[in-house]
Amino acid sequence: MSLSRGVKIAGYGCVCACGNSAADAFDGALKGRACFGLPAHRVHSSYTDTYPVFMVADDFLAARNPEQSISQFLFIACANEAFAQAGITPEQLHTKRVGVVVGSSVDASFHCFDVYHHWRKGEFSAQDARELKNYLALPTAQTISRHFGFTGPFQTIVTACASGTDAVGIAKSWIDTGLCDAVLCGGTDEISLSPYDGFIRLMVAGKERCKPFSKNRAGINVGEGAGAFLLVSHATAEEFNLHAQGYVLGYGNACDAYHQTAPDPEAKGLIKAINFALKEAGLTADDLAFINAHGTASTANDPAEGVAFRTLCPQVPVWGSKGVTGHTLGAAGAVEAVLTIEALNKKIVPPTVGFEQYDENIGFTPTTQVTAVTKRFALSDSLAFGGCNAAIVLGAQDAA
Amino acid sequence: MQPKLFINGFSYLLGDAQAEDFTPFVETRKLRRMEGISKNALLCAFRSLEQAGIDKNASKEDMGLSIAMGAGALESTCKFMDSIITDGDALSSPTAFASSVHNSTGLTLSMFLHIKGPCLITGQLDASFAGALLTAQQLLAKKMCKDVLVAVAEDINPVLPAILPQYENDFAPLLCGYPHPFKRVAAAFAVCAESTINTKFVVQEITFSRTDETQNKVEMPDFCSCAHSAVAFGQQLDKARDFDFCETFAGSTLNIEVKKYAA
């Protein structure tokens, strides 16, 4: 293994249903604590008395400037946590080429349902015009880059539920190839009508709290949240005396070319993505302490991951965290990467909240209790609509 | 130093692809349920791969996809919202929802062209093409694939053309091309990290930065679209000469140094 291939994580942050900071979210994951319930106060849908979601706490959201999208607010909060952990201010980095890569789904889509509805009814107003202009003028990564005063490249990645993992992987690449000295990266997403109704209408959403990898699983719960990392080059880390809070060591991505909403049951794309990530990291499955799986608790996702993990790393413990975060869509990969680093650094893996029964079609039992780990590396994977698969290999802060 | 990109094939489209355009490539009945944005991208992809000498039917384990979508599949997004508005959310269209996801266009390209390498999609309005080019460069630099198909696909937001006559001043800084009509456009570029017998151009350097510029300064003489950069870039390639491609958007600048390739 060669950590010279890895990119240093100088800081990270997270906000999701199980906590308002990375440490708080990890504690929530350990204890199975989450803000979970019916979202009538967040979306206007006839389903809100039936289909629950995982939400960021209302008091946290109350601090948002109404001009700011929830997704951008959440990401900025996580980024501030990352800067604080790194012990550096964004202003100190203004002499450097700092990029921003953010994965999102809702924030990068035309999500202005009320604006659209008013227009269709012939009731478009000046307020609607302002909202439409905000949506057009404030693309996710660009707006976040402007918020912090960075002038490097920016990219909003929209590979649906793999966006967050892809954003971290691409950010690593920007450091590796010398495109940037530092990259603020991650993912963010919010509860919104279209995905909420859409997943219900596709019959993949559950009416109960999700049960990842469980035989009696009954579908996903949409969630919201954000995860952010400050990645830095070795030279930048030295210049500002930034300590490693962890490492991003490998990234892989491959598409299934199989189906619009279902993963390839043979998991060929996912296997390819994981293999690439491990190869880039210079590691093998034997080096992994655990896998943080995508584990949505949908009928099709969990067996596909089962095939990939049984094929590549049958002895490696698998942890699914969506039983405390929900499926945070474009943020999922980043939220899960933060929880993975927390687990590596604390040397314990939480239980897979919601898991109840072994499923022979999945072929493994995920973590069912807090489990101590000694190995210093872990894998986190994401699968998305359209057959996009992504995987990253992460290292603990003491992995070097 | 960023790696060079060798352009082996390119194609762009102003307006919508017609069924007969696909005759050389695919049975048109297979396109019946496909949304327009994906059809346009697919036609450009077929044409650029053909120019690059890449067999459209071959399995492409080592080809990646880097897709730029200004604001996603708006036709399907609006169809889904229409179905909620007219039928109620209990009868809203799951098909329209699935097609509204950005990855839908990625799936179309990967399935029709048998592409099985990495697939990444950038969605940031005018700056999407810049992001997709950077991604292609990164995928090749990291040897995640040997070729990348950069595809650009843009839909029209139906609200904008309808409300702009009344609110033009509010939106003017963001728009280039307006008051010319909004047009659905697409483009595709077959690129790789090393020259082939089909190489036509070399991208020497791409510089993409965020700025505090508030006015979109791109000149687009006859249409309005987030994907104008990709089309304008293709139009420059048509001239078959060296050029520096420079665009200043509201909030960013893109510079691409391109040389005509001579083996």
Q: How is this structure best described in words?
A:
The complex is a heterodimer of chains A (400) and B (263). The mean pLDDT of chain A is 96. The longest helix of chain A is centred in the N-terminal third of the chain and has 17 residues, at 70-86. By secondary structure, chain A is α/β, with parallel strands linked by helices. Chain A has helices at 22-31, 58-61, 70-86, 113-120, 126-137, 140-148, 163-176, 193-201, 234-239, 268-281, 301-312, 322-325, 332-346; strands spanning 7-16, 36-37, 53-54, 98-104, 154-157, 182-189, 225-232, 246-255, 288-293, 318-320, 348-349, 371-372, 377-384, 388-396. Chain A has a single domain, classed as 3-Layer(aba) Sandwich (Peroxisomal Thiolase, Chain A, domain 1), CATH 3.40.47. Chain A has 13 helices and 14 strands. Chain B is an alpha+beta fold. Chain B has a single domain (5-260), classed as 3-Layer(aba) Sandwich (Peroxisomal Thiolase, Chain A, domain 1), CATH 3.40.47.10. Chain B has helices spanning 36-51, 74-87, 94-100, 103-113, 128-141, 159-171, 228-238, and strands at 5-14, 63-69, 119-122, 147-153, 185-192, 201-210, 243-249, 252-260. An 8-stranded mixed β-sheet of chain B has the order 3-2-4-5-1-6-8-7, sandwiched between helices. In chain B, strand 7 (243-249) and strand 8 (252-260) form a beta hairpin. In chain B, helix 2 runs antiparallel to helix 3. The longest helix of chain B is centred in the first third of the chain and has 16 residues, at 36-51. The chains are: A alpha/beta (400), B alpha+beta (263).
User: Helices and strands of chain B: which structural class?
Assistant: alpha+beta
Strands ordered across the widest β-sheet of chain A: 5-4-6-7-1-8-14-13-9-10
Outline type of chain B: globular
One letter per element, helices H and strands E, the order of chain A comes to EHEEHHEHHHEHEHEHEHEHEHHEEEE
Q: How much of the sequence of chain A is in beta strands?
A: 15-25%
